[in-house]
Amino acid sequence: MGSRPERATYDELIGRLYPADLLYIRNEKGGLAHVILWLGEVGVSPDGTPLILDSTSPGHRDSRGVPIPNGVHIRPFSRDSWYARDLSHAHRIIHGVQHMREGEVAEAEEGGALIP
Asked: Helix, strand, coil shares of the chain as percentages rounded to 5?
């Protein structure tokens, strides 16, 4: 098993991610606790903040203490969010999906690349 790469800055990370990458989030104890889906170019808020697809059960709060709505929702991946702060790593399971555009969708390769 190889060594773990150095952790990227927030800006470096969002520059490396592609739509449909899976991001793994750690809990307070350091264990993997959550997985979110990176939306990439198809998911950017009006203020430019990248968005992710997330699902939670009742009773959770965001990094500001605000209750998080139950179920599947599009949420911001801001610099100060729990997602960015406690990110462990990302995993690319679909290769070839770098940019979104209108028209036919090329067949994407399946894979398993780890994104630092």
From this structure: 10, 40, 50
Round to whole Å and give the CA distance between 43 and 112. Answer: 23
pLDDT tens, residue by residue, 76-112: 899 988 889 899 999 998 876 655 555 555 555 555 5
Helical residues (DSSP H) of the chain, grouped into ranges: 10-16, 82-85
Q: Is this prediction's pTM over 0.70?
A: yes
Task: Name the one residue in this structure whose structure tokens are 């992710």.
Answer: 52
Domain ranges of the chain: 10-115
